[in-house]
Amino acid sequence: MTENLDQIGEREIINRLTKYMPIGQIEDDTAQLNPYGKEILVNTDVLVDGVHFSNETTSPEDVGWKAITTNISDLAASGVDQILGITVGIIAPPSTTWQWVEGVYNGIEKALKSYGGKLIGGDCSRGKEKVLAVSAIGTVGHLRLHRSHALDGDFLIASGPHGLSRLGLALLIQDPVISNVQMTQKLKNKAISAHQRPIPAIDALRALKKCKPKDVPWRAAGTDSSDGLLEAIQNLCNSSNCQAVLDPSNLPREQNWPIGSLWDEWCLNGGEDFELILSIPPIWAKALLQSFPSSRLIGIMQKGPSKVLWTNGEEIQKKYLLEFKHF
After folding, report:
1. Band of the pLDDT at 32, cuts 50, 70, 90?
2. Cα gap 167→261, rounded to integer Å
């Protein structure tokens, strides 16, 4: 029987591909290499027209910015010390204008000037749709964040609010589901900016490193929430063989975030928030909460099957389904 990718789904596709790689190789946001005693992080992301961007919602410069910052977000989620460089592979229909390509690379240049690294190569080819494939390279410092480093008793921290990018998309496409919702102009502006010009959590990573208590070892679990807050937490649980308990009153909502089940859903599963989701010792977590104001204590990690639960014991995965699917 022939199976199509949309029938299999992204998670099962990845599970099946693990047989071609070393054990544990893709249980994290990045791959780690150790050539000649140097610890190097490598990450690759693909942005596809109609899936990750469109002319309706994203300018060419925004596409270039997003292509870089999504990769830097994964490096940050692995504890990157220095961003070295990126390569860009671009596929586009022959009818694509040079102005579009130039706009993309202007966005790439601006992102690199903001966060570090250099454009060191790439490739281009014709195709039926626009695609950007970006690989980013960085170094590892004292802190190597990894999804598998969570332990029982850790505090679960989100570096910032969630759901903004999903709201930004809804505003840009004039989604009727929000047509009668009252919200401030400040919230609208911030949401659109979060969707078009995402900001990787480099500042949160720096704060995490800086505030570490001296008597606490450099052990922390982390990932980013590019595929949604709930998916990020589930990934930590799966890789660390533990479970998370979330406090519904402490979901990382933006100020003046509307109330209701839809808005909680967007907070949990909206995707493309690019915040750090951390599982760290309580004393370190308290130091981060004091030093980085946008961070939020959202739950704890404990022993048990790899599930994400509310404080009342209800499994969240059963109630909330991910909106975004790669296939």
Report:
1. low
2. 14
- Alpha-carbon distance 274 to 194, whole Å? 9
**Distance in angstroms (rounded) separating the CA atoms of residues 13 and 34:** 27
Alpha-carbon distance of 229 to 304, in angstroms, equals 20
What is the DSSP pairing of strand 243-246 with strand 308-310?
A: parallel
Q: Extract the tokens encoding 226.
A: 């590019």
Per-residue pLDDT tens digits for 186-220 = 999 999 999 999 999 999 999 999 999 999 999 99
Sign, CA dihedral 96-46-200-258, equals positive
- 221-256 confidence digits (pLDDT tens): 999 999 999 999 999 999 999 999 999 999 999 999
- The residue with tokens 């009342």 is 312
Task: Write down all domains in the chain, each with its CATH number in brackets.
Answer: 5-140 (3.30.1330.10), 147-319 (3.90.650.10)
The full DSSP string for 225-260 is -TT-HHHHHHHHHHHHT-EEEE-GGG--PPTTPPPS
Give me the residue label for tokens 């990718």: 5
Tokens encoding 123: 């490739």
Please give the full DSSP string across 77-115, using - where no structure is assigned.
TTTEEEEEEEEEEEEE-TT--HHHHHHHHHHHHHHHHHH
- Specify the residue for token string 């969240």: 316
Measured at the CA of 264, the angle between CA 261 and CA 270, to 5 degrees, comes to 120
